[in-house]
Amino acid sequence: MKILIVGSGGREHAIAWAAAKSPKTDKIYCAPGNAGIAEFAECVDIGAMEFDKLAAFAKEKEIDLTIIGMDDPLVGGIVDVFEAEGLRVFGPRKNAAIIEGSKAFSKDLMKKYNIPTAAYETFTDPEEAVKYLETAKMPIVLKADGLALGKGVLICKDLEEAKAGVKTLMLDKQFGDAGDEIVIEEFMTGREVSVLAFCDGKTIKCMTSAQDHKRAKDGDQGLNTGGMGTFSPSPFYTKEVEDFCEKHIYQPTMDAMAAEGRPFTGILFTGLMLTEDGPKVLEYNARFGDPEAQVVLPRMKNDMIEVMEACIDGRLADVELEFEDNAAVCVVLASDGYPEKYEKGFEIKGLDAFKGKEGYYVFHAGTKFDGDKIVTNGGRVLGVVAKGDDLKAARANAYEATEWIDFANKYKRNDIGKAIDEA
Ligand code: AMP
Ligand code: GLY
Question: How do residues 39-76 score in pLDDT, each as one tens digit?
Fold first, then answer.
């Protein structure tokens, strides 16, 4: 098969790696890709939002399967464009990707179908939002309705911060139109777990769990980022929690989307908070997590391409997902300053150290070629991943491997997987 992957981050590198392992795969293209993906795929200089150009490319190259890694093209309707051209594509259509594209939509869906989530209200008028905040319990959470690179969520400890948050999102429009509507929701406490699942519109099959570290700095301080590191599995995602989520969250979400005339095919990513009152949904995403994919896919025993085809053909009920009985940890190496201002263009050294080392991976996020050198080209630069027999071993291996890499302004969190010690 000829495969086209759309995206350019660490997640797409992990997807390309998994696709390359499949005996079904003959050739991989990636648009636009990065310097690491280029090892498995021919990178094509077409942007992820250039749907017509991408579809024309897929037709010209007779691509058998296109995999959409990123949220923006999914929410923008790339799957509908490909399907209209008779092309086979893995991902939700626009009317289902809205589960990630609009937090107001997903909250209303959960309310309507009794799926456990934080209590909330939505607002399009900043004055109304402030009026509501004046009587609300603090801390409180403000979320831009639309996509904001995982950064449109503000946790506000008091009324003053919350009012400033309304200004940031709705008046200063820090995230553009994404802040035209906001969700204000109850602040929850507990462990966070990310559960990614394959879906075929009717059936949902979950992968092994993972935990992300969203804040930029150690001790969960600093700004929210796309994710600074992950581990898999989560020791807090017990069989009991899993059973609860299967019954009250995953299948009900699939059924709700189907009942709304928006059957969901692709990857559904449920962000959970394990609260004292039981698991509750923090958010849904319509694609693999980044950097969750980097720790989940290397542990998957199935042929990813086969599972994706089963999703497209509505045969997922016949598939049994299998994962290795081990653990994996990903530590993101970022450019100092991320998620705010940072410099790029610095040479990355040490990548070759990963070659031929079983159980160690370096997934590129923001890198590019500069002549025959590989240089930094983004906030998140690399995801260093290692497996181990258990979480502690995987964590030690991953941190050791971060030392193999060197580039100017290299920054990482030093406490990825600290929660493992509390399990
Ligand atoms: P989201 O993009 O909605 O997952 O939010 C990003 C991060 O903000 C989450 O991973 C949580 O750490 C935090 N967060 C979101 N909603 C809440 C909430 N209701 N209570 C506490 N923390 C939250
Ligand atoms: N790591 C969180 C996300 O991909 O949204």
Answer: 999 999 999 999 999 999 999 999 999 999 999 999 99
168 C-alpha to ligand 1 centroid (Å): 17
Per-residue pLDDT reduced to its tens digit, 190-201: 999 999 999 999
Exposure string of 323-332, with b = 16+ CB inside 10 Å and e = fewer, is beebbbbbbb
Confirm or reject: Cβ of 212 under 6 Å from ligand 2: yes
Distance CA 324, CA 213 (A): 23
Q: Do 366 and 376 form a contact (C-beta atoms < 8 A)?
A: yes
Output the CA torsion 409→410→416→418 (10° steps).
-70
Q: Which of 232, 282, 292, 385 to mutate to test the pocket of ligand 2 (most atoms within 8 A of CB)?
A: 292
DSSP conformational letter for 423: -
Residue with tokens 């090892």: 39
- Residue 322 carries which side chain, given as an amino acid letter? E
Q: Measured between alpha carbons, how far is residue 143 from residues 99, 183, 274 in Å?
A: 14, 5, 20
- Model pLDDT for residues 123-163, shown as the tens digit of each residue: 999 999 999 999 999 999 999 999 987 678 999 999 999 99
